Amino acid sequence: MIQQIIKYPTPPSVQYSTDVRVFNENIFSLIDDLKDTINANDLDGLAAFQIGSYYNIVLIKNQDGTFLELLNPRLISTNGKITTKETTAYFPNLSADVQRHDKISIVYQDRDGAQHSLQAEGALSVLIQRKIDYTFGSSFLHKLSKEEKKIFEKKLEFGSDVAISEVCPTTFKRDYLTKLSNILTIIIAAAFVVGLFMSDELRLSLWHAQLYLSYGVLVTNVVYFFYAQYEGRGYTSCTSCQIGNILGTTVISLTKLTLIMILSYFLVNPF
User: Over the stretch 157-168, which tens digit does the pLDDT of each residue have?
Assistant: First the structure.
């Protein structure tokens, strides 16, 4: 019988799995349910934990359609490291880069209670590790590095598989150009105020200084406008806000410069 797979944000119904002690029809029925659920959802494996069972059972679907039944699996040795992009039914449509062991050795029992050992590497090794994680009430979220966990939390927030490089940051390198433009504008504004109280000869020199500074503001904003677009291409998930912020910042800066220079032309320029 096809069972419902527990998915985020629903918490698992149990904290960790319990080993199978009695190998009876209830266990066989649970194994059949796992097979039906795997086939119905086109999965490559499933832990009983993922359908709300507290039994320590993992099923792996082989390429030929048969199943590897792992009852009470235990990881006994590991070797090497491998980083893969993983998906899981618990977090639908989301993925994460997870570091796993490349080669593993496990012991387990079959449905008759007989003991077996298995060595696996590569994709099979990763798959078995993923499913054993669930028997301990875990998922790949607990395996992520600090940086990758921040990325995945963003994915959960947006509900889509978006890389962190595509999420708008709060600061950019172009912000330094904005600061430079603001500093130059403040100097021009200060010169305007001072010029109101100076002689015509000094105001002429001040006006020339304001002109040169205004050219600096203008050039800074032109550089900002084009560099900001170049920098923004690395954050494609927020294209609209990127364009809006770039245009808005440029327009505001040039508007302030224009107003100050108009006032200076009539009030500071002696001619």
Answer: 777 775 444 555
